[in-house]
TrEMBL record:
The chain crosses the membrane at residues 25-45, 192-210. It is a multi-pass membrane protein. Keywords: Amino-acid transport, Cell membrane, Membrane, Transmembrane, Transmembrane helix, Transport. This is Amino acid ABC transporter permease. Residues 21-210 form the ABC transmembrane type-1 domain. It is found in: Cell inner membrane; Cell membrane. Belongs to the binding-protein-dependent transport system permease family. HisMQ subfamily. The keyword Cell cycle does not apply. Its main location: membrane. NCBIfam families: HEQRo_perm_3TM. InterPro entries: AA_ABC_transptr_permease_3TM (IPR010065), ArtM/GltK/GlnP/TcyL/YhdX-like (IPR043429), MetI-like (IPR000515), MetI-like_sf (IPR035906). Part of the binding-protein-dependent transport system for glutamine; probably responsible for the translocation of the substrate across the membrane.
Length: 221
């Protein structure tokens, strides 16, 4: 017997999905607010080649990059509050886990982008009498960021999709709320089809925007 699709039942519980979507955006935004400045700071410190600090940052970056996201979420939700003597809400735990992991990836993205800038640009800025901070802020970093736009989008997309793992600790993001809607409507296929379309539509629209930005600010070879 053919399956009869019924999206109307799911739409009657759209308040759950809308709440989950809002929490997903909030979670991704919070993690990104940690990841971007952290990644830039770590990249700059590693490029400074301070002996012990550079080595420690490299080890820490590798730990966060190689750890599965779900393991970090569990660790920050269950273990870290015990070790630190604090009580974390689910949002805080997932934000830290995903923000720090994405920050580790962003550190390598920033470092690679900065290194990729032609040495002539560094030398020209030095010849003009610019200090290291001014040279980095006005000459090197703007060129590096323009080169990094595609990989920025890739990492942000991975972060956005990883927010669905927050359902493992019952945080009310869209997958968790979809589970509730599916249990109330007995329509899991329709419910998760809508969730899949939500992720696809969001990422597709952002990808079009990123490509337009990339074409506009591309560094000429």
């Amino acid at each position: 017997m053919a399956y009869e699709w019924d999206f109307a039942a799911v739409f009657r519980h759209s308040d759950l999905l809308l709440e989950g979507a809002a929490n997903t955006f909030r979670l991704a935004g919070s993690a990104l607010l940690i990841a971007l400045p952290l990644g830039l700071a770590v990249a700059m410190l590693r490029l400074a080649r301070i002996p012990v600090l550079s080595w420690l940052l490299a080890i820490t970056t590798d730990i966060f990059r190689t750890a599965p996201s779900i393991v970090l979420i569990y660790w920050f939700f269950f273990a870290f509050p015990i070790l630190a003597g604090v009580d974390f809400a689910g949002h805080t735990a997932v934000t830290l886990a995903l923000g720090l992991q994405t920050g580790a990836y962003m550190a390598e993205v920033f470092r690679g982008g900065i290194i990729s800038v032609d040495r002539g640009q560094w030398q020209a800025a030095t010849a003009l009498g610019m200090g290291s901070a001014t040279r980095m802020r006005t000459i090197i970093l703007p060129q590096a960021v323009r080169r990094m736009i595609p990989i920025f989008f890739t990492r942000i997309t991975e972060l956005y999709k990883a927010t669905s793992l927050a359902a493992a600790i019952s945080y009310a993001e869209i997958v968790q709320m979809a589970n509730r809607a599916a249990s109330e409507t007995f329509r899991p296929m329709e419910t998760f089809t809508i969730v899949a379309l939500f992720f696809f539509t969001t990422i597709f629209c952002v990808s079009r925007l990123v490509r337009a930005i990339e074409r506009r600010v591309a560094v000429p070879e």
